[in-house]
Each structure stands twice: as structure tokens, then as C-alpha cells.
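Dear support,

Our group has been running a series of protein-ligand predictions, and this particular one with cytidine-5'-triphosphate is the one our PI (initials K.S.) wants archived with full inputs and outputs. We had some confusion internally about which version of the output was final, so please treat the block below as the authoritative record. The input we submitted was:
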Amino acid sequence: MLKDKNIILGVTGGIAAYKTANLTRLFVKAGANVKVIMTPLAKEFITPLTLATLSKNPILVDFFNPENGDWNSHVDLGLWADAYIIAPATANSMGKMASAIADNLLLTTYLSARCPVFIAPTMDLDMYQHPATQKNMEILKSYGNFLIEPESGELASGLVGKGRMAEPETICNYLGNFFASKKEFENRKVLITAGPTHEKIDPVRFIGNYSSGKMGFALAEELAERGASVTLVAGPTSLSINNKAINRINVISAQEMYEVCISEFKNNDIGIMAAAVADYTTKAANHKIKKNDNCINLELQKTKDIAKELGDVKTEEQLLIGFALETNNEEINAKQKLKNKNFDFIVLNSMNDEGAGFQSDTNKITIFTRNNEEKTFTLKEKREVAKDIVNEIAIFTESLK
Ligand code: CTP
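Confirmed final output from the archive:
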């Protein structure tokens, strides 16, 4: 499962660093391309020469190559990697990661990595149990990092307990399973609504909104890549999509979107309501409405609430996910929609967060689940946000089994 995967191994200064020789060997044996970043202290525990030889790549420690002054770009490294595993991760490095301290290459690369990040902690029993360490680990998990739990046993200090870095085989299998489970949506059918709707006023005008459809399309692509068959019900948008696993159905109005969703939902395991559906529509005039000297009134009728109706007919086996884009009382409104529409979870984005919401290429989300869990993510590209949401769907589905 690790064949041709680009893996960055970040080694921090703990005694378990000696195990990274074997870990590197296992990654390489599994067909992965490995680049190793060490913190300055890690070099005291294992020589760069060992890891350079085993990984077949020069070791990266400094921001600049001391020999030729070349810049070791943490951004390029972060983009190159399919996975970043920090092993061993000391309490010190985890503390820095949790609070965005970036005083070495391992940490700057962590902050700019777009790939999944795995963390294998190592430390003494009491350090591990300290509430500050536990809190940092919770923070790191809440950022979407994967923690590979340390094992119990005899520690370097002579104490016995939890804190020993997971064995290289365990870490290697963990990553292998992660990539294998990338197809976890095989045989799953997903209905996604995306984009705005246009409610016709007359042959040349409509009521619309600023939704671009980018979030819904990114979700469709991510799910299709992870094995799902997707039905994408798209309102008017200039976006294109080219994936055999995605069946795109174009609609214009809220009523059209409603009809497609009502007939399709029963054939799907998961529904994701990412569209910005017009709440009101109007009876369209047959001819262009001419202006006159007075104001004119448009009579608006309520549209059908697609999400609410799907929530009402949802079976125990089906999952329904909603979105809430709010400008005020964000959390209260999102939680109300979660309940009223019978969603399994709702993705909140606030117009008050810079870079979030309609049109933008980025988004900042908080997820509230029906089990009263809450997870906040940082501002990311919508493609990355889609990964986070799909990861959450996978976790949620798993917890239902
Ligand atoms: N939604 C829907 N059909 C509608 C209105 C909304 O399917 N007619 C879905 C959206 O796709 C989203 C969720 O319901 O997943 C919440 O949409 P939103 O517009 O935020 O909520 P509304 O119920 O319309 O409430 P309001 O506009 O008053 O905030």
C-alpha cells in the first residue's frame, strides 16, 4: 500500500530515534520514497549518515544547506509528501506543533504540510500522563492529525508504563492501512447537491446567490477518488468535472433540485447537502418585465426544503450531512439546523471568517455531530477541506458499526 508513496519521516530528539533506522528501512522496502527531516537534537540520538543511507536521500535539518546555501523549502516538501510521519514525537515537539511554534525545519514543514500527518509520541510515563501533554495531543488530534498511540512497557528511564514509541512495524502498517482505506467508500453511493439555484423572474432575470459550487464539487471528487459512486446534483455553475464515478445532473431551480434529490436519495447511502438552495421562488413572467415609474413587487413563494425532506425519510442506514453558512449566531443556528433537518452532522462556515464561504477557494469549518461532538479545522483550500469532511464521514460511519 505504500508503493510509490512519498513519505517524510520527521525525527525529533528522543531515545526512540534509534528505531527510525528500521522504520526507514521498512518504508523503503514497501516501495515508498522517503525523505528524512531531523531536528538538531535528533542527530544526537541517531546519525544522519545512517538515515541518509537507508532512505537513499540526503537528510534535512537546516533551513539552508550549510554546504551550498541552498534553501530547503518546507513548502515544497509539504507539497511533495503523501504522508508526513513524525516519529518519535517528543513532548517538546508536540507542544510546539500544538501552538504553531516553527523554530526548525521539521516544524515549519509540519505547518505547511497538506498531506495527512501521523504522530508517534514517545516519552517517559509521567511526561506522557501530564495534563499538558494530554491536552497538546488532543489539540493535535483536533487539527486532523493521526496519533499512533505509544505502547506500554519498559521505558528507557527504567519506569514501566505507557510512553514507548509504537514499533516500526506498527507504524508502517498504520500508514499502509491508511492508504488502503483510501478506498473505504467503495460500493458506497453518495448524493451531493452543489452550487446555487436560479429562480426565474422573467426570460432574462433570476433570483440567485453567490455560491460557486466549489465545496460540493471538491467533495464529489474526493469521494469518487476514495471509491464512491457519486450523483452530483449541480445548480448553475461554470465548474466542470471529469470523473467516471461522478454522475452529474444539472438543474436550475430549487424545485428541479428537489425533484432529482427526492427520486435519487433512496438509492444512496449518504446525502451531502452542499447547495445554496433558494428559500423563495416566484412565478416567472412569460415576457420581459418592463420598467415603469413605480416600484414593482415580486410575490415570493417558499421553496421546498430538500434537506429537511430527506432528513424526514432518512433510514437508519443512511447518513445525511448538511451545511450552514452563517453571518451571526453561527453555532446556535448550525445546531438548530442539525436538529431540525435530522442531519448526522453539519458543517458550519461563517461569513465572518476571512477566506471562508461563497466564491472563495478556501474555507474554514467547524463540524457539529448529532452526538454533540464538535471539531474545528483551520483555514484550508476547499480540496483539503473536502478531505477533512470525508475523513469525518469515514470516522462517523465507522462509529455506527
Ligand atoms: N437546504 C436545502 N433546501 C433548502 C434550503 C436549504 O436542502 N430549500 C440545505 C442546504 O443545502 C444546507 C442546509 O439545508 O445543507 C442549511 O441551509 P441554509 O440555507 O443555511 O438553511 P435554511 O434552512 O435555508 O435557513 P436560513 O436560510 O434561514 O439560514
